Amino acid sequence: AQTVTQSQPEMSVQEAETVTLSCTYDTSESDYYLFWYKQPPSRQMILVIRQEAYKQQNATENRFSVNFQKAAKSFSLKISDSQLGDAAMYFCASRGIQGAQKLVFGQGTRLTINP
Amino acid sequence: GAVVSQHPSWVICKSGTSVKIECRSLDFQATTMFWYRQFPKQSLMLMATSNEGSKATYEQGVEKDKFLINHASLTLSTLTVTSAHPEDSSFYICSASGTGISGELFFGEGSRLTVL
């Protein structure tokens, strides 16, 4: 079984500043993926960043990076140089690697960017 | 690459009628597709998992007879909401995974269903 928990329903940050969104998870899988998805007002799900759990190195994608703490089962997202276009709902998710595993989402964090 | 198209993007229907939503993988073969439901300001809730050519696996609490899922080909899955009621009004999102695409699921644009 998998569970994903996002304890911050809402976050806000000043434009150009840095913000960190928190996520913890629990899984019985020995190997798995972790994701951050962005859902803007259009409601299209957009992949922000992906982390393979067997990799110790934290994933980075331009202004987005993660802090993956496997032992603590923590997977936070850091957004640097926040831009107005970053405003959206952000969902943390996990998925087992073996077979056709489902993607389990956290509750989501609504991020507001203040100009 | 890895585009998933969902149709219709929005639909309004009368109570008691059935509505079909299509989910297509345009440039890859989707061995598995997932159907999610999302209420306003909430997360995505998995309804069912469908594998091509076999019966869908429904999550606990999801009515199989109300939400019919068919995955007849490697590029198409359909969700039919039968005898729709106002409480079925929601945002439905499909996602797909294919062979050789590591881990990531690709999402359709979603379909907003309103039942009057």
Description:
The complex is a heterodimer of chains A (115) and B (116). Chain A is mostly beta strands and 115 residues long. Chain A is built from no helices and 12 strands. Chain A has strands at residues 2-5, 10-14, 19-21, 24-27, 32-39, 46-52, 60-61, 64-69, 74-79, 88-96, 104-105, 109-114. In chain A, β10 and β11 form a beta hairpin. The mean pLDDT of chain A is 94. Chain B has 116 residues and is mostly beta strands. Chain B is 0% helix and 54% strand. Chain B has no helices and 11 strands. Chain B starts with a strand and ends with a strand. The interface between A and B is medium-sized, with 21 and 22 residues.
How does the SSE layout of this entry go?
The complex is a heterodimer of chains A (115) and B (116).
Chain A: E1 2-5, E2 10-14, E3 19-21, E4 24-27, E5 32-39, E6 46-52, E7 60-61, E8 64-69, E9 74-79, E10 88-96, E11 104-105, E12 109-114
Parallel strand pairs in A: 2-12
Antiparallel strand pairs in A: 1-4, 3-9, 5-6, 5-10, 7-8, 8-9, 10-11, 10-12
Chain B: E1 4-7, E2 10-13, E3 19-25, E4 30-38, E5 44-51, E6 57-58, E7 67-73, E8 76-81, E9 90-98, E10 106-107, E11 111-115
Parallel strand pairs in B: 2-11
Antiparallel strand pairs in B: 1-3, 3-8, 4-5, 4-9, 5-6, 7-8, 9-10, 9-11
